[in-house]
Specification:
10-stranded mixed β-sheet; 2 domains
Length: 317
Amino acid sequence: MKTITQPQDASSAPEELSPHIQARILAEALPHLIRYDDQTVIIKFGGHAMGDAALSDAFAKDVVYLKQSGVNPIVVHGGGPQIAAMLKKLQITSDFVNGLRVTDKPTVEVVEMVLAGAINKDIVSAINRQGGKAVGICGKDANLMIARKITEMPDPESNLMKAVDIGYVGDPIEVNPHIVDVISKSDIIPVIAPVGISREGETLNINADTFASALAARMKAKRLLLLTDVAGVLDKEKQLITELTIEEARTLIKEGVISGGMIPKIEGCIEVVEAGVEAVVIIDGRVPHCVLLELFTAHGVGTLLGRPRRDQRVRTG
């Protein structure tokens, strides 16, 4: 387990760099460029960054640069605040159970409209403006994400499974990534809305983290990056933990260091790594160009959970 005492601030970099500094930066990035060449990296884009024009543009630039560098980026996006705003505008009330939005028939129609419509196309347009070629799809396309309704969840107090009725909220049961493979192996970047479909043909709202994790596990992605509104996992002194093994993460959960809403996120990360993804990284999406900083620098950003150590990331290939 590694920690960092000083937060990294990408915005403090000078606007103009000398040729020597530029050459050094490129030389330092080269091993990482080679490491991720022709590799699949799935990025869950969400949180505050989605509502900030400058951060959204920086994210779009990062994704385009990844594609131009030989990486195969796949974007899965959230949209909770935008959904909430539209529900309020339409005067539709909405509650939450264990962090999941209770989704009745009118709500799921709004969810699909906002996620697969407005938000998805905004992200596609942002990537295209930065010189990339993006196309928007959702989990319903080509049966990409087949899910079932969630009918039981662990009780927060007893941790025992308890029956729930939260409507059209889904949990993935089958992932068919053919359409994503076809798109990402071309010069096009797939941007995916986390809307799935049941075997009975019902539209289901799927948590974006859950959707991205299921896709990463099925595709055996090199990395899954989860952009959030937190720096990562913090230790007892509230300092950022830069890297965790599966065993260390489970110990921190038992000790109460990892608590609250971070527990299911970390448990989901563990499942993804155990399914074959090399590592999952929880990143503060409010840091400009956080995706490039994570993939193309030795120190990375956020908290990496996986089998390799950060100081082994170049050597192990």
